[in-house]
Amino acid sequence: MAFQLAPTAIADGYRLDAHETVGSTNALAIEHARAGDPGKLWVVASRQESGRGRRGRAWATPQGNLAATLLLIVGRDLRVAATLGFVAGLALSDALDAVAPGARIAVGLDGGQSMQGGRFELKWPNDVLAGGAKLAGILLESTMISDERAAIAVGIGVNVAAYPEGLPYPATSLMALGARADAATLFLALSDAWSVAMRDWDEGRGLARIRKRWLARAAGLGSEVAVRADDRIVRGVFETIDEECRFVIREEDGGRIAIAAGDVHFGAVASAGAV
Q: Boundaries of each BPL/LPL catalytic domain copy (predicted)?
């Protein structure tokens, strides 16, 4: 099955640039923007050779996995556009529910107790988990293309056929979970779910709805966490995400701290201090 857009995505004006192999879908999307592309363009591949995650980390996309980037053109104020990562998480988790309703999920959160159920969860700020194991990652990148416009590349990588081993955290793939969906089937569902989630987001006016939906899928909500933010580690209980989608921790003394960026660890890893 070749990559294709859902009818809802086509009706909403999205376009498709599909490849078997690319260097990086995010990089290619930004190239399109600099060449004058108007946005609402999905750049998709079943293999990328130089993908990357947050903080420049490598993100492997072997043949059969999904690498998808949505190019959007927005105004110069990027604060609201930054919340598109939460839209992406919701759209992807909805798409996963659609293509893998019977997936076997029974993995612990960062080494914690085993969790049973068929629910895909969202780990702040940019991961999708299957019972605590990383299934997908999301990366937003931006660049100014004029004095008044910016290009946003919403990158989404999903372990469909394979997942990396030897990582400091558990990982999984749709195939390992028993799902039969391939990358093209998942992308078709993703393009549909994205259109629905974007209508909820409503150019940022519906962020409260997005936040509520995201919290309903949040991994580790109410549990002990450790967050590495810049050069320090903050420990406490994951209480919520605030109106700006920052990660809110309740510390042992009852104080609350909101974190805009950092690496989150749950359960046994947080308790052991191994971050």
A: 15-202
Q: Please state the pTM of the whole predicted model.
A: 0.89
146 closest CA partner among 261, 69, 32, 36: 36
Question: Residues 232, 193: one domain?
Answer: no
Residue 1 in domain: no
DSSP string for residues in 126-138: TEEEETTEEEEEE
β-pairing, 149-158 vs 256-259, is unpaired
CB 135 within 8 Å of CB 167:
no
Give the helix/strand (H/E) hosting 156. strand 149-158
1-34: pLDDT as tens digits: 699 999 999 999 999 999 988 999 999 999 999 9
245 shares a domain with 167 = no
pLDDT per residue as tens digits for the range 165-187: 887 789 999 999 999 999 999 99
Q: 102: phi > 0 → left, psi -120 to 50 → alpha, else beta; which?
A: alpha
**pLDDT of 69 above 90:** yes
